[in-house]
Amino acid sequence: MAAAGDGRGDRNGGRPLAGGRRSLPGGGRAGGHLAASDAQVGLAAGAVDRGAVAAGDAAVDPAVDRDGRGGLASWVPNQLCLNRYEAGTGHAITPHNDNEGGGLRVAVAGVCIGAAAVMTFLHANGDKRDVALPGGCAYVMSGDAFAVWRHAIFASNIDYRRGGGGARVSLTLRQVEERQAHGGGGGTQPRAASLTGSAKRSVWPRVCGPMDAFTRPPSPGAEP
Ligand SMILES: O=C(O)CCC(=O)C(=O)O
Ligand SMILES: [Fe+2]
User: Fold this and answer.
1) pLDDT tens digits for 30-52?
2) To test the ligand 1 pocket, which listed residue (83, 94, 176, 198) has its Cβ within 8 A of the most ligand atoms?
3) Which domain of life is it from (predicted)?
4) What is the distance between the alpha carbons of residues 155 and 10, in angstroms, rounded to a whole number?
5) Which residues line the pocket of ligand 1, CB cutoff 6 A?
6) Fewer CB within 10 Å, N- or C-terminus of the chain?
């Protein structure tokens, strides 16, 4: 796996990261990985997911309610970001925390299409965890994974031979506090990463509520 410091700093312009494009070490878990069986990763052993845990084991913490507003239960994404990583380009996303500037609530949720990747989580104390993101998976980055750790997808950790199409696409949802969603504040928009010009983002007032809302009885006084 790439070292924690690879590519630090520059996340833009599709430039290869320092150390990017080099081949992966052949197997072996990097130090400090969470214990998880390869079965949990749900993929045959391959370079990119060796030593990585499944997203559900490491990144999802639905119980956490840090702002006293209900945690994930009250998380209403209002921003969609599309990232495209293309084979042969060195596309990557260097270490960052999506909420570095504040203004995001609770979580970032993502859907991954195409090539398999590993997201590397980095803690200020030097800890490092790899989380497998096979094509077709969805993740919810919440709890400390959202609030404390930084994360990156190094160019060397995207396996374009797996997933087909020579590309990886991620769709990520965020809840941007109103003030930012309508143009106020600053520095809280997710960054474009090292991606192609096809990366797009949109902000709109409200996309959807919690998906299971229709299964719950209406609250008193709610409109039919
Ligand atoms: O491509 C991904 O799955 C994650 C991208 C990311 O970390 C971001 O857009 O902030
Ligand atoms: Fe991110």
Assistant:
1) 222 222 222 222 222 333 444 56
2) 83
3) Eukaryota
4) 13
5) 81, 83, 93, 98, 110, 112, 151, 153, 170, 172, 190, 193
6) C
